[in-house]
Amino acid sequence: MPRLFLSADHRGFAEKQRLLGLLKGTNLGYDIIDLGPATMQPDDDFNDSAILMARSIRENRDSLGILICGSAQGVCIQANRFKGVRAIYGYDEKITKQGREHDNANVLCLSADYTKTSDINKIVAVFITTHFLPKERYIRRTRRLDEEEIYG
Fold first, then answer.
1. Of 10, 69, 76, 109, which is the active-site residue?
2. d(CA 75, CA 45)
3. Pure H helices in the chain
4. What is the pTM of this model?
5. What pLDDT digit, counting tens, does each position of 22-54 carry?
6. What is the domain-level CATH number for residue 57?
7. How many distinct structural domains can be found in the chain?
8. Does residue 151 fall inside a structural domain?
């Protein structure tokens, strides 16, 4: 079964915990995995959760991830430094759908500070239920994203 990984820094921790509770009670066809932290870590760096997420996605190719921090920007930048990871900042349903369909996004980055809970629920639902459209140009473009890599 594919996995759905969740992780956050201190600013996204409460939202991650809320989403975990919501997602664990559903039958979405994913094994829900909490990458942590298990408790609030006020001095953590967003980099740690994003690196852990990126490595988990690389090891589980058919899986998806949700990363949450204050702005979504830092985790998105960090996660995209890994080959095979295609992280998007899903600030609304439309852009999230396009990210999945056109870019084969496998990590959704969310802003705990700037996105309402009701919107997060909708964005996550779109991310999980939307699939990549295997058109030749989308396949070609997605492959090109992995031409260079920062981390091994």
1. 69
2. 10
3. 13-24, 46-59, 73-79, 93-103, 117-129, 136-144
4. 0.95
5. 999 888 889 999 999 999 999 999 999 999 999
6. 3.40.1400.10
7. 1
8. no
Letter string b/e over residues 103-141, b meaning 16 or more CB atoms within 10 A of that residue's CB: bbbbbbbbbbeebeeebbeebbebbbebebeeeeeeeee
Residue 8 dihedral angles phi and psi, to the nearest 5°: -160, 160
3 backbone dihedrals φ, ψ, rounded to 5°: -110, 150
131 counts as catalytic? no
Strand partners for 33? 5
Q: Which residue matches tokens 């760096």? A: 45
What range defines the domain where residue 85 resides?
A: 3-144
Q: Verify whether residue 10 is a known catalytic residue.
A: no
